[in-house]
Amino acid sequence: MKTPLQEPTFLILTALARAPLHGYGLILEVSELSQGRLSLRPGTLYGSLDRLSDDGLVTVDRTEVVDGRARKYYRLTDEGTELLRTETERMRQAVQVATLRLAGGFA
């Protein structure tokens, strides 16, 4: 997976950092994390989950049947957790530099 991560990918990984979630739960969590700026459609979400799974960053945690329909719960893998930590630190450093520059300092 190339970095820097696109915002939807970053937010999907962030949403899964707390606990496994199913698709609709992920859609809600990403919307909340982005304060409503990002609204994932199911096709976009599941395409992203397929890519993240292929890259070894997420995996299916379990499947439950709810109202006769299978509901897959996804979770971060160790590799996904490490990528999220690395990307979070990269972004933190970038924000720190920008904050310093905006305040008239040098970085």
TrEMBL record:
Pfam families: PadR
InterPro entries, sorted: Metal_resp_DNA-bind_regulator, Tscrpt_reg_PadR_N, WH-like_DNA-bd_sf, WH_DNA-bd_sf
The organism's place on the tree of life at top rank: Bacteria
Signal peptide per UniProt: none
Domain Transcription regulator PadR N-terminal: 12-85
UniProt-recorded name of the protein: PadR family transcriptional regulator
Taxonomic placement: Bacteria, Bacillati, Actinomycetota, Actinomycetes, Micromonosporales
